[in-house]
User: Fold this.
Amino acid sequence: MNETLTLALAAGAGVILGAVFFGGLWWTVQKGVASKQPALWFLGSLLLRMSIALAGFYFVSGGHWERLVLCLAGFVVARLVIARLVVTRSARNNPPDTGGRPCALLPIR
Assistant:
C-alpha cells in the first residue's frame, strides 16, 4: 500500500480512537453524575477507554513511529473537536454571565 495512504489511515484511526475515548468520557460524566455509584462508572469507563485507546495505538502503529505520531495527532484533533462541541452545547443550554462584555473576550474556563 502507498505510504502516504497508510499514514493518512493512521491519522484517521487516531481521530476515531479519540472520538471513542473523549465521547465515552462525556457520556460517562453524563451517566456518572446521575448514578448512585459514580465511582464504578468512572473507574469502569476509564479502564475500558484506556484499553481501547492503547490497543488501537498499538495495532495502528505496527511498529512504525510515524504511524504512531500521526495516530496521536488524530487523537488530539478529536479531543479538540469534542471539547468544542461539548462547550458549545453546554453554552447553548446554560449561557454564561458575560457581565456586559462580548463572549469572545471571556476567559476560557
The CA atoms of residues 21 and 49 lie 5 Å apart.
